[in-house]
Amino acid sequence: MSGAFFHLIRKKDCKLIVIPAIDLKNGHCVRLEQGEMLKETVYSDIPEEMALKWYKSGAERLHLVDLDGAVKGRPINRDVIERIVRAVPIPVQLGGGIRDIKTVHAYLDLGIHQVILGTVVYKDPEFVIQAGKEFPDRIILGIDAKRGKVAIEGWTEETDISPVKMAAEFENTGIAAVIYTDIQRDGMGTGPNIKATKELAKAIDIPVIASGGISGIEDIEELLTIADSGVIGMITGKAIYEKTLDLSEAIKLTKKVEKNFPRQSSQNGIPYA
Ligand code: AMZ
What we know:
Layout lengths: L2 H11 L3 E9 L2 E6 L2 E9 L2 H10 L5 E5 H6 L5 H10 L4 E4 L5 H10 L3 E4 L1 H5 L1 H10 L4 E8 L2 E4 L4 E2 L4 H6 L8 E6 L11 H10 L4 E4 L5 H8 L6 E6 L1 H4 L5 H14 L13
Parallel strand pairs: 1-4, 1-12, 4-5, 5-6, 6-7, 7-10, 10-11, 11-12
Antiparallel strand pairs: 1-2, 2-3, 7-8, 8-9
Helix pairs in contact: 2-4, 10-12
Bound molecules: aminoimidazole 4-carboxamide ribonucleotide (AMZ).
The site of aminoimidazole 4-carboxamide ribonucleotide has 20 residues, from α3, β6, α6 and β7.
């Protein structure tokens, strides 16, 4: 089976899920606005309790970001990450400061289900391809864009490459998914960038997870309309912390839509794994 064909099937087979985000800074669960480290709201000093809360609301997966790690380029919040992995029985995806194979190994050994690579996707694409080969379906690309161009290093540096161009380099390399974040919408509750998310999902065979800007149930409804382009997940943060979105309601809605327009979950029951 050719690689491209493989991915086309996978896109259809993947189950669309709502993924709550836990962003970690100094051991706390926080939200930022547009990724600005100084524009922080702390939601919990015990992030593992937050993880349990989202799990009990029906979450089938968690999205973790080590924000200090993303800025410093190495893992910083490892202890709390370990506590979260131990606290919940669902797959956890993690990004922030994962820049070498030793760190990839360490996090997978810790029980992280999939690692998200951001800055190295731009700086060292060959490394990402090697990691994808060594760990098929365990590597996710974190492609974060500001004004249509990819940003790196904790979103402090802008590049001149577009998300589509960057993602296209990784077709058929064992990459599980691309998380596409619209930085200007992240933490702002202004609605997701439907147009750009759809464009990316249509342009590549790798499944896409939408991130940034979800404010309420109407955004979930809108994202569900582009699921067929290859959008397999939506990450929500501020909306569930500020209670403008009820996580269990969002999950129920996506399940109902999945039931009416079924896309099978993957064999082992873990979405896009
Ligand atoms: O909010 C930010 N400033 C931020 C953020 N959420 N900066 C990076 N990140 C996330 C990316 C991706 O998941 O969305 O960190 C990860 C990338 O980290 P790295 O260290 O690989 O570039």
